[in-house]
Design brief:
Radius of gyration: 31 Å
Distance between the termini: 86 Å
Strand content: under 5%
Largest sheet: none
Structural class: mainly alpha
Order of helices and strands: HHHHHHH
Shape: rod-shaped
Number of domains: 2
Number of helices: 7
Length: about 170
């Protein structure tokens, strides 16, 4: 299926100007390589709202939005590549005699580190890239936060006990 071409506002106005100058519709359509019905559509669009972008004309705003979307996707891909590099380095550091399989906990640690470093990759995509479940990551995160709180509490208790027992 053929997709329609998009014409910018300047192109459309130059076509309409030639028609208003008295050139025949068939000649203008042939010179510009357009279908003869398009100028009538463009006239209607301009008559309804001269300031509005005409039908099918994305203009620069559409291009800028597309560029922004592509840059966002490129940033996510770069973040995913960095995660995969880290997992590859972990596998390379392991003993060569063992099965080269990185533990799930180390993968969770990589995801957590990437999030704290400010990577643009969502957690769900990070988990997918490293082959772990998102729910498992969040459970691991809860467990690690709980154990961190317990360690802090224990260190406070040991500091206090040192004050009372010389």
């Amino acid at each position: 299926m053929k997709t329609g071409r998009r014409y910018d506002r300047n192109f459309k106005t130059s076509v309409l100007t030639d028609l208003e100058a008295g050139k025949p519709l068939i000649q203008v359509a042939h010179e510009y390589g357009i279908h003869p019905s398009l100028p009538d559509l463009w006239k209607t669009d301009l008559a309804e709202d001269p300031e509005k972008e005409s039908r099918g004309d994305k203009g620069e705003n559409g291009d800028q939005a597309r560029i922004a979307e592509l840059e966002r996707l490129l940033g996510q891909d770069n973040a995913e590549i960095e995660l995969l590099k880290k997992i590859h380095l972990l596998k390379a550091e392991q003993k060569t005699g063992e099965e080269a399989k990185t533990s799930v906990e180390k993968r969770y640690m990589i995801i957590n580190e990437a999030q704290s470093d400010g990577f643009a990759l969502p957690i769900s995509r990070s988990c997918q890239a490293l082959g772990v479940s998102r729910s498992g990551y969040y459970e691991w995160l809860k467990r690690s936060e709980r154990s961190e709180k317990i360690n802090i509490r224990n260190s406070k208790h040991s500091d206090l006990s040192g004050q009372f027992h010389p």
